[in-house]
Amino acid sequence: MNDRIRQLRRTLGMNQEKFAAAIGLRQGTVSHLEKKGTTVTEQNVKAICAQFGASEGWLRTGHGEMFLPGQRQERELLAAFGQLAPPLQNYLVQSARELLKAQLEMAGDGAETPIK
Fold first, then answer.
1. CB under 8 Å to 66, separation ≥6 — which residues?
2. Is 66 part of any domain?
3. Rounded to 10 degrees, what is the CA torsion of 6, 11, 17, 20?
4. Of 105, 80, 103, the residue nearest 92 (C-alpha)
């Protein structure tokens, strides 16, 4: 599991300090978790999976996909959104609303579902 924690962190493009901060740990703790043979607590497994959308099965066993379906794209979108200037964030939200409306109209539904 230690190698998979390192692999997940690197896939996310994070250093140990940022990874640690995201799950409420210190950088030294993440360094320790990535060392072969270190026991990873249940609390740390749950925190890693919840924060990063990682598959618990993959983290524990290495089987299956690293991320839960859709989670990786959602995280990438949110990370990119957070780096945009506020006027561009507003533009993106408005564009998403328009795309949703067009999708509903194409499906013949016609009902509008507001994005909050």
1. 7, 8, 11, 54, 55, 58, 72
2. no
3. -70
4. 80
Residue in 74, 76, 75, 54 with CA at minimum distance from that of residue 65: 54
* Location of structure tokens 């030294």: 28
Is residue 11 located within the same domain as residue 53? Answer: yes
Alpha carbon of 4 to those of 68, 85, 90, 103: distances in Å?
Answer: 15, 34, 37, 38
Instruction: Please spell the DSSP secondary structure of 54-78, one letter per residue.
Output: B-HHHHHHS-S-SB-TTHHHHHHHH
Residues 6 and 57 in one domain: yes
12-36: pLDDT as tens digits = 889 999 999 999 999 999 999 999 9
pTM over 0.70: no
Asked if residue 68 lies in contact with residue 74, where contact means CB atoms within 8 angstroms, the answer is no
Q: 94 lies in which domain range?
A: 71-106
Which segments of 1-116 are extended strands (E)?
Answer: none
CATH number of the domain enclosing 18: 1.10.260.40
For 29, the token pair is 């703790």
